[in-house]
Structures are given as structure tokens and as C-alpha cells.
Amino acid sequence: MRAIIAGGTGFIGRALIAELQKNNWEIIVLSRTPSRVAEVFGSGVIGMVWNGGGDWSSLLGPQTVVVNLAGENISGRWTTAKKQRILESRLKAGEKIVQAVKSSEQPPAALIQASAVGFYGPHQSTPLNEEHPGGTGFLADVARQWEDSTKSLEKLGVRRCIIRTGMVLGHGGALKQMLPPFRMFMGGPVGHGHQGVSWIHLLDEVRAIRFLMENESEAGAYNLTAPNPTDFNKFAKILGEVLNRPSWLRTPPFVLRALFGSMADELLLTGQFALPEALQRAGFEFRFPDLKSALSDLLAR
Ligand code: NDP
């Protein structure tokens, strides 16, 4: 089988490609700078340009699964221009995939469409499964439009799985940004600490994506989150224990708002307790269902 991965050069994409290569998938990465694909992956992965008119529609067909991970990274200060890039990069990626499928002779077998648990908007303590409706706020709006950007492919018979991903824990991403204060004995929760943290180990993230790519009976929305979401107070406590560092130095909301603008309120000071009900119903088994085992695995290396 062939995987065509948009945004495959990123944090999740690289791990996904390693997982797929172990399982004999042929990989093509759609990138804004295909020369980086060769730099990152060597000759085993083909890189194709897809902005500015690169035509990759002839690569599609029934033995192909497209994975859409592309989009401007959401970390950093959310200026008006940054928010626009966050939204538009995702809508353009969806649009380009739809155009390619429509102009192909044969559609792909499936599309894995990235999204995020931010789809549900901020929620205090209610556990959220995939049936829960979309919420309000910038991230929820982006996620809804992002999910909808490829919805028309379902009418063409493409099996579509939407992956509403939580905070992915690996050697990179959010965890990399959290570690320095903890290592310097200055770590702790942010804000009141009761906000939900729906997390997933990077290995389970890419195993779940492969599971959905390979299971022909699966379609619809899936929370890609471990079955034991926690709150920020417990997250900081467990991270401190695993690193053998204190975890009581709380970052007040005004500091986060000064640093990150409205991103602080939407991503750091509020959260969700999402549950992977659809994945578990489908028979997926997590290697790292609890936070301590996930962090110990990542930080003991
Ligand atoms: P990364 O930011 O690491 O990678 C995303 C890829 O998208 C990049 O490698 C890049 O590929 C491409 N890209 C970046 N900016 C733009 C842009 N402005 N326009 C078009 N393409 C762009 O993301 P992750 O791997 O961490 O995540 C993959 C997807 O999953 C993202 O859309 C993210 O929002 C979502 N997600 C991630 C979570 C996480 O914890 N990591 C949590 C929830 C959702 P290239 O330069 O080769 O074109």
C-alpha cells in the first residue's frame, strides 16, 4: 500500500513514516520544500511539491491512503497574522487534496484528516466522547472548518477518518517546551491547574493512525487521546516525579497571557477531558494508557 502524507516532515509525520516503513508501506511526502524530505528521510521516501501547482493526482488510486497533517504550527504568540496562517494553511491543504482527488482517475481508498481535541472548545470536567458537538472559540472554529475542508470526498466514496488529537507526548512538540523549567527546578502547573489535559504518547498516536489507515471498516471521528486524561495539577506532579524535580511553581495566567496572547486562554488555561471511545470500540489497544508509564518511557531514554 502507498501512503501520501501531507505535512509528513513534521513531528507526528516523521514518527508516522517510521511506523509505516516498518510495515512495508510505500511513502510519498507532500511538502512545500521537497528537498527537505530527502534531507530528513534519505532516499527511501519520495518528496513532492504540492504548493504552487505540483500535480500528484496521478499517484492516487485504490491502493493509496492520503494522510493530511499539514498546517501552520499553533505554538507561539497568536497575532492576527498568525491566526490567519493557522486557519488558511489548513483550509488550503484540504482544498488541494479535494482538487487532486477530483482530478484523479481513481480516488484513494481512504483519507486520514487531522484535527484536534480543541474541536470541543473548553470544558471543565465533563468527559468528552466523539458524539459531543463542536464548541466555541478560535480553535474550535478552526477545527470545525478544517474537518469540513475534505468532507466532500465522502460523496466520492473515500473512507474518511478524522483524528481529533490531544497533546502528543514525544521527543519534541509540547513536552520539549515544558521540560526546561522543570529541569531547572522551576516547573509546575499553569493557572489553577484544574484544566483537562488530553494527552497521547507519540507511539500510540502513530499506531492509531496506522490502525485507521489499515482498517477498512473504520470511518468517522476518533479522539486520539489516551484513555486516562488528567488535569494540569496532576500532569505537573507526575512530570516532576518522573524527572525527580519539584513541581509546585505555578505560572500565573497574566504571565501566560503576556507571553502568548489569546493562545494562553484557549490552549493553556482551559482544556478538555477527551476519551478515545471510538478507537477502543474498534479494538485499538494503547501501549501507554497511563501518564506515568508514557512519561517514564520518554524521559528515561
Ligand atoms: P508540525 O508543525 O510539526 O508539522 C506540520 C507540517 O505542516 C510541517 O512539517 C510542514 O511541512 C507543514 N506546514 C507547516 N506550516 C505550514 C503552512 N503555513 N502551510 C502549509 N503547510 C505547513 O505539526 P505536528 O506534526 O505536530 O502535527 C501534525 C498536525 O496535527 C498539525 O496540523 C497539528 O495542528 C495537528 N495536531 C498536533 C498535535 C500535537 O501535539 N503535535 C495535537 C493536535 C493536533 P512542510 O514544511 O514539509 O511543508
TrEMBL record:
Pfam families in UniProt: DUF1731 (PF08338), Epimerase (PF01370)
Domain DUF1731: 251-298
Residue span, NAD-dependent epimerase/dehydratase domain: 4-224
Origin: domain of life: Bacteria
Family: Belongs to the NAD(P)-dependent epimerase/dehydratase family. SDR39U1 subfamily.
NCBIfam families to which the protein is assigned, alphabetical: yfcH
Protein name, per record: TIGR01777 family protein
Taxonomic lineage from the root: Bacteria, Pseudomonadati, Thermodesulfobacteriota, Desulfovibrionia, Desulfovibrionales
